[in-house]
Design brief:
- About 40% of the residues lie in helices and about 30% in strands.
- It contains seven helices and eight strands.
- The protein has an eight-stranded mixed beta sheet with strand order 1-2-3-4-5-6-8-7, sandwiched between helices.
- β3 and β4 form a beta hairpin.
- The radius of gyration is 16 Å and the shape is globular.
- The termini are far apart.
Length: about 190
Protein backbone atom coordinates (compact mmCIF):
# COMPACT_ATOMS: atom_id res chain seq x y z
CA UNK A 1 0.00 0.00 0.00
CA UNK A 2 2.81 2.45 0.86
CA UNK A 3 4.48 2.08 -2.52
CA UNK A 4 1.20 2.63 -4.37
CA UNK A 5 0.32 5.71 -2.34
CA UNK A 6 3.70 7.34 -2.97
CA UNK A 7 2.87 7.65 -6.68
CA UNK A 8 -0.68 9.04 -6.42
CA UNK A 9 -2.03 12.55 -6.79
CA UNK A 10 -5.02 13.38 -4.57
CA UNK A 11 -6.91 16.22 -2.87
CA UNK A 12 -7.54 16.92 0.80
CA UNK A 13 -9.48 19.88 2.19
CA UNK A 14 -9.44 21.68 -1.16
CA UNK A 15 -5.67 21.32 -1.63
CA UNK A 16 -4.34 19.30 -4.55
CA UNK A 17 -1.31 17.13 -3.89
CA UNK A 18 0.17 16.73 -7.35
CA UNK A 19 2.67 13.89 -7.49
CA UNK A 20 5.98 14.85 -9.09
CA UNK A 21 5.53 11.98 -11.55
CA UNK A 22 2.62 13.99 -13.02
CA UNK A 23 4.27 17.42 -13.17
CA UNK A 24 4.40 19.10 -16.55
CA UNK A 25 7.54 21.05 -17.48
CA UNK A 26 6.03 24.35 -16.32
CA UNK A 27 5.19 23.05 -12.83
CA UNK A 28 8.54 21.30 -12.61
CA UNK A 29 10.33 24.57 -13.40
CA UNK A 30 8.29 26.35 -10.71
CA UNK A 31 9.32 23.69 -8.18
CA UNK A 32 12.97 24.22 -9.16
CA UNK A 33 12.56 27.99 -8.81
CA UNK A 34 11.09 27.58 -5.30
CA UNK A 35 13.76 25.10 -4.22
CA UNK A 36 16.62 27.24 -5.56
CA UNK A 37 15.39 30.44 -3.88
CA UNK A 38 18.10 31.56 -1.42
CA UNK A 39 15.68 31.70 1.53
CA UNK A 40 14.69 28.08 0.94
CA UNK A 41 17.96 26.43 -0.05
CA UNK A 42 19.98 28.05 2.73
CA UNK A 43 18.19 25.73 5.18
CA UNK A 44 18.67 22.56 3.15
CA UNK A 45 21.41 20.01 3.62
CA UNK A 46 22.35 20.51 -0.03
CA UNK A 47 22.22 24.29 -0.13
CA UNK A 48 23.75 24.86 -3.56
CA UNK A 49 21.57 25.67 -6.54
CA UNK A 50 20.35 22.71 -8.54
CA UNK A 51 20.73 23.09 -12.29
CA UNK A 52 17.80 22.45 -14.59
CA UNK A 53 19.18 19.23 -16.11
CA UNK A 54 19.81 17.64 -12.70
CA UNK A 55 16.36 18.72 -11.54
CA UNK A 56 14.57 17.15 -14.52
CA UNK A 57 16.64 13.95 -14.17
CA UNK A 58 15.74 13.75 -10.48
CA UNK A 59 12.01 14.27 -11.15
CA UNK A 60 12.16 11.63 -13.89
CA UNK A 61 13.95 9.19 -11.56
CA UNK A 62 11.12 9.43 -9.00
CA UNK A 63 8.81 7.54 -11.37
CA UNK A 64 10.88 4.40 -10.80
CA UNK A 65 11.52 4.89 -7.08
CA UNK A 66 9.38 2.74 -4.82
CA UNK A 67 10.71 4.35 -1.66
CA UNK A 68 10.05 8.07 -2.33
CA UNK A 69 7.01 10.27 -2.74
CA UNK A 70 7.12 13.98 -3.67
CA UNK A 71 4.11 16.28 -4.04
CA UNK A 72 3.52 19.85 -5.12
CA UNK A 73 0.67 21.39 -3.10
CA UNK A 74 -1.72 23.60 -5.05
CA UNK A 75 -4.61 25.55 -3.50
CA UNK A 76 -8.07 26.13 -5.01
CA UNK A 77 -6.82 29.34 -6.68
CA UNK A 78 -3.97 27.40 -8.37
CA UNK A 79 -1.34 28.96 -6.07
CA UNK A 80 1.68 26.70 -5.65
CA UNK A 81 1.94 26.42 -1.87
CA UNK A 82 5.02 24.25 -1.47
CA UNK A 83 6.39 20.71 -1.55
CA UNK A 84 6.19 17.75 0.82
CA UNK A 85 8.28 14.58 0.61
CA UNK A 86 8.52 11.10 2.10
CA UNK A 87 11.49 8.73 1.89
CA UNK A 88 10.68 5.29 3.27
CA UNK A 89 13.33 4.09 5.73
CA UNK A 90 11.52 0.94 6.96
CA UNK A 91 8.05 -0.47 6.39
CA UNK A 92 6.43 1.87 8.91
CA UNK A 93 9.01 4.70 9.18
CA UNK A 94 9.72 7.53 6.74
CA UNK A 95 11.94 10.57 6.60
CA UNK A 96 9.98 13.69 5.72
CA UNK A 97 10.80 17.01 4.17
CA UNK A 98 8.95 20.07 2.97
CA UNK A 99 9.41 23.64 1.87
CA UNK A 100 7.09 26.58 1.35
CA UNK A 101 6.90 28.59 -1.84
CA UNK A 102 9.06 31.61 -0.90
CA UNK A 103 6.33 34.05 -1.93
CA UNK A 104 4.33 32.71 1.04
CA UNK A 105 7.09 32.81 3.69
CA UNK A 106 6.03 34.10 7.12
CA UNK A 107 2.33 33.45 6.49
CA UNK A 108 2.00 30.30 8.60
CA UNK A 109 2.22 27.88 5.70
CA UNK A 110 5.05 25.96 7.35
CA UNK A 111 2.47 24.84 9.91
CA UNK A 112 0.12 23.84 7.09
CA UNK A 113 2.80 21.83 5.25
CA UNK A 114 3.88 20.04 8.42
CA UNK A 115 0.25 19.34 9.37
CA UNK A 116 -0.45 17.72 6.00
CA UNK A 117 2.84 15.85 6.02
CA UNK A 118 1.80 14.21 9.28
CA UNK A 119 -1.84 13.74 8.27
CA UNK A 120 -0.83 11.96 5.06
CA UNK A 121 2.04 10.05 6.66
CA UNK A 122 0.06 8.74 9.60
CA UNK A 123 -3.54 8.61 8.36
CA UNK A 124 -3.28 7.93 4.63
CA UNK A 125 -0.04 6.00 4.17
CA UNK A 126 0.05 4.38 7.60
CA UNK A 127 3.51 5.16 8.94
CA UNK A 128 3.98 4.79 12.70
CA UNK A 129 6.91 7.21 12.89
CA UNK A 130 8.19 10.13 10.83
CA UNK A 131 11.72 11.48 11.11
CA UNK A 132 13.51 14.56 9.81
CA UNK A 133 16.65 16.56 10.33
CA UNK A 134 16.64 20.33 10.62
CA UNK A 135 19.49 22.83 10.69
CA UNK A 136 19.95 24.01 14.24
CA UNK A 137 19.93 27.61 12.94
CA UNK A 138 16.49 27.17 11.30
CA UNK A 139 14.62 28.60 14.29
CA UNK A 140 11.26 29.07 12.55
CA UNK A 141 10.99 25.43 11.53
CA UNK A 142 12.13 24.26 14.95
CA UNK A 143 9.33 26.37 16.49
CA UNK A 144 6.81 24.71 14.18
CA UNK A 145 8.12 21.26 15.03
CA UNK A 146 7.94 22.11 18.74
CA UNK A 147 4.32 23.16 18.26
CA UNK A 148 3.69 19.78 16.61
CA UNK A 149 5.26 17.94 19.58
CA UNK A 150 8.35 16.56 17.91
CA UNK A 151 11.03 14.71 19.83
CA UNK A 152 14.70 15.58 19.43
CA UNK A 153 16.44 12.24 19.12
CA UNK A 154 19.98 13.34 18.31
CA UNK A 155 22.13 15.63 16.27
CA UNK A 156 24.65 15.40 13.45
CA UNK A 157 27.15 17.49 11.55
CA UNK A 158 26.80 17.61 7.77
CA UNK A 159 28.74 19.90 5.46
CA UNK A 160 30.11 21.68 8.54
CA UNK A 161 26.62 22.54 9.89
CA UNK A 162 24.80 21.19 12.92
CA UNK A 163 21.42 19.49 12.44
CA UNK A 164 18.90 18.18 14.95
CA UNK A 165 17.41 14.75 14.32
CA UNK A 166 13.72 14.82 15.18
CA UNK A 167 10.83 12.39 15.15
CA UNK A 168 7.06 12.44 15.29
CA UNK A 169 4.98 9.44 16.32
CA UNK A 170 1.41 8.51 15.45
CA UNK A 171 0.22 8.52 19.07
CA UNK A 172 1.38 12.11 19.63
CA UNK A 173 -0.16 13.12 16.29
CA UNK A 174 -3.54 11.79 17.41
CA UNK A 175 -3.33 13.84 20.61
CA UNK A 176 -2.20 17.10 19.02
CA UNK A 177 -3.89 17.30 15.61
CA UNK A 178 -7.10 19.02 16.83
CA UNK A 179 -5.17 21.91 18.37
CA UNK A 180 -3.13 22.32 15.17
CA UNK A 181 -6.33 22.26 13.11
CA UNK A 182 -7.56 25.23 15.18
CA UNK A 183 -4.38 27.13 14.26
CA UNK A 184 -4.92 26.40 10.57
CA UNK A 185 -8.20 28.35 10.72
CA UNK A 186 -6.15 31.56 11.13
CA UNK A 187 -3.82 31.02 8.17
CA UNK A 188 -4.57 33.15 5.14
CA UNK A 189 -2.55 33.42 1.96
Amino acid sequence: MIEEYLKKSFSIDGIRFKNFSELDDSDSLEVLKMRNHILIRKNMSHSSEIDINNHFEFVKSLKNRKDKGYWLLIDSNNNLIGVITFSVLKDDIAEIGNYVNPIFLNKGLGILLNYYTQKIGFEKIGFSKLTAYVKKTNKEVLKIHNLLHRNIIGNRIMNGEEYLDISFDKCTWEKSKKSVEKLLEYIEF
